[in-house]
Amino acid sequence: MKRLPLVAAGLAAALSVALSGSAATTVLGSGRPAPTAQLLALSHTEAAAASERAFAQDLVAALAAEHSGNLVVSPASIFDALSLLAPGARGQTSAQLTRALHAAGSSRQLIADLVGLEQHLGTADGTVAMASAAWLQQSYQIVSGYRQLLTDAGAAPQALDFISDPDGARQTINQWVLGHTGNRIDNLFAPGTISDTTRLVLANAVALTAQWVTPFPQRDTQDAPFTTPAGPRSVPTMNLVTSMEYVQTADAQAVRLPYATGGLDALVVLSADTAADPLTLLGRLPGITSQLSSHAVQLAMPRFAAETSTDLRSSLGALGLADLFRFPDLSGIAGAPGDLRVAWAVHKAWMSVDEAGTKASAATGISVETGAALIRQPIRMTVDRPFLFVVEDTATGVPLFVARITEPHPEGS
What molecular functions are annotated in GO for this chain (predicted)? Predict the structure, then answer.
């Protein structure tokens, strides 16, 4: 009998919620196969799923470089929030978003895919709920076609007064997020992230509650060693002996844990390299899972809860989207190229796994502000040789201090 070890030393497992079966035959959370025609009607095609998988791999790699320790993220939520923004991009900005999202079609198709996924999640039995929303500065005029696309996506813009009451608007948005994440994701937009220059905010929220087909017996949970980066420690560890899909390759051990609602399962993946970041296995999941087969397995796995809050600007910049936050062309939303820019892109995610199943919530927010037209492509000045430094009185031009710097040394050196 093949086994996963009872002692979960070096586990660092990558637990991911995944589609069970191919996108062409299974509707997420439906509990039964769905004909291809039905899936096509929902617009969430295999091409769209491939785009989301490729985006997820790129995004997680970028986030892993920024975050040590536990990391929880919903690539689907971030993908969908960017999909709401994409139809408003033009020129090079549109091309950058298309590349980053691995988009298989037009920005209109991205919206159709988003609608398809959210509709199809909404027909499930409460296992997963996903929603999108948009808020617009009252009386601010945006391109009618973009407004219609947001409406088609179920995110018809709601009017808020960012100019007169930015913090009140922020609280309204945060309350929507809280209500659409099972009261788990609070304060997505921190104080100061919404200002009187904000003109548009886009958000996506997702919440999951799923029970295992075969729960872990509570009586079998006991403390067991777990090797953390800081060394071994004792953690509450669940134990289950049952028939499940399992594989051991040269790279990893993996097991599939199905949820009681069909179409969803969890993959627990344990790297063969005890020093490796388990997230590096994400790109190899298709090859690993294609080899899964039914075995009697004795699985020992820690129960856990983890959450991550992240400013996405750096990670999205690593995906080729840095211009979104500097000098984008969002004239498909309003104004001329450079009149609008993305001020913030934020994400929060939470997950809890125990003997009964999995609960998880996530939200993504994107705020778009005006004023970028004053900040065109900068002239670069690099101070890399001897220079003059003057402190002067602004009104009179009187120099209070003058310095010539030929060898810079920081204070205390």
Answer: serine-type endopeptidase inhibitor activity
